[in-house]
Prior knowledge:
Elements: H1 10-22, H2 28-40, H3 47-61, H4 64-76, H5 84-92, H6 98-110, H7 116-129, H8 133-146, H9 152-161, H10 165-181
Helix pairs in contact: 1-2, 2-4, 3-4, 3-5, 4-5, 5-6, 5-7, 6-7, 7-8, 7-9, 8-9, 8-10
Amino acid sequence: PGSLHGTRNPREGTAALLDTLHDKTRSRQDYEEAASALCLGGHLLDSADYAHAITSAWSFRRLWEVALAAIDEMRMRGMTRDIAPYVACINSCSTRAWRISLELLEVIVRDSMEPGPLCYKAVLDVCARAARWEQVLALLKDMEEMGPKPGLPEYSLALKVCKNKEITQSLLGIVDMCIDRS
Length: 182
């Protein structure tokens, strides 16, 4: 990717960097250099560019650190109103980064953005992959209290994570509570 930095047309450079990120045969170093160049090189002009780059590339390789740096860069540039890059960043989180997904959800709520079902599903998926059943149950409770209301896919995911009998009983109690409310 070093030759891409000298590109005269920024859009051509962006396309070349994105091509590098989509190329599964590239080395991890090439991949990380292209991701950093995209994020820090002025190639991403608006939140839609950030969302596209994070979704199409960084989430593919689970480079959540680079995706998080892109979110930080986006925030520094004042582009904080679009939730799509945040959801893409959450989707890029590995099981080791489950706390990061929860922190991003907190940022979304704190910044008065509406998390929505895709955002909660992304956080639930990360916590479920990390076998963090406590967080999964807490998220379901938050969804029930604040919205969006969880549905069958969310409860099914929680049941898969909750393997022991006591935990499953807690989940079934939450499901009963939800059924009673509806």
